[in-house]
Amino acid sequence: MAKSILTVDDSASIRQMVSFTLKGAGYEVVEAVDGEDGLQKARTKTFNLILSDQNMPRLDGIGLIKALRGMPQYKMVPILMLTTESSDAMKTQGRAAGATGWLVKPFDPQKLLEVVKKVIG
Amino acid sequence: MAEQGYEEHVAPNQYYDRQFDIEAAKILPGEYYATRRDMLIVTVLGSCVAACIRDRASGIGGMNHFMLPESGDNEDPLSQSARYGTYAMEMLINQLIKLGAKRPNLEAKVFGGGNVMRHFTVHNIGERNAAFVLDYLGTEKIRVSAQDLVGIYPRKVYFFPKTGKVLVKRLKNIHNNTIFEREKEYSSRLQVTPIAGEVELF
Are A101 and B103 an interchain contact pair (Cβ–Cβ within 8 Å)? Predict the structure, then answer.
């Protein structure tokens, strides 16, 4: 069965590009428009990987990670950040919240697939 | 962190504009600026485009100034140009949101994309830039309330984010090559840099 990935980003352009890339590699992809939407979707089914932006309305990426890590079914699920934020301070916060990795935009399809393969196969 | 050729920067040039009697920021290719204050943001565009985006409720607004890299297939949604353009737009929008702007309140005025650069191998570069910015804003559902795109003249754009007012001066007499040199230098920088951010696994 195809592994399922939840991609969370408030930009429709990014959601389109990420979905296109991941679906092309055979993954099943669900999109969410902000952290709150992502959290709701993550409750309805347990994904194999979460890929999230940082700056979003309602709930940001780090807030989403913290909420997910508080749920038993998401203790071990890889969570990757895909964001324009490149500072060490933000990465440290992300790591402390429980992020598995940090990808800085502009997003590169090949690099994204390499990392996804590395963390979920 | 090593500086990348594609990296978008907050405009460092700020001054007091005597003509409009207001604090001003001047933007060069590859830069953006966003503010919640009553200011003027100025740029000069050849084939580049600038998006002036503001929250119509709070008056938080900003402007970017970019062009797409020449490489890349227009039809490929993951091309270097699509990914760079998306990045340039997102840097500005994220900055606006950090300052307190609300996404549903955003509206845009877009300028530039003139057919002014004879040394580019892709002759319709201005049109590509213009088409990209309109397409992007459509995808993001950000309303375009004014535009002055393509054509043959470079433009000087004055944006007052607090009120949303924009003045556009079409430059029919250019006294030197500064605009073209800057765009050319920016374009070459984009050509040699892979459009890809860093990856770190914790």
Answer: no
Give the pLDDT confidence of A36-55 residue by residue, as tens digits. Answer: 999 999 999 999 999 999 99
Domain ranges of chain B: 75-157+171-195
pLDDT at A100 (0 to 100): 97
Q: How far apart are CA A79 and CA A5, in angstroms?
A: 10
**Whether B2 contacts chain A with CB within 8 A:** no
| Rounded distance between C-alpha atoms, residue B128 and residue B116, angstroms | 13
Backbone phi, psi, residue B46, to 5°:
-100, -100
Cβ <8 Å between A105 and B197: yes
Q: What parts of chain B have a pLDDT lower than 50?
A: 1-2
> What is each CA distance from B148 to B57, B109, B130, B172, in whole angstroms?
24, 8, 9, 15
Q: Average the pLDDT over A70-76 and give the result.
A: 96
B-chain CB neighbours of A99 within 8 Å are 202
Global pTM reads 0.91
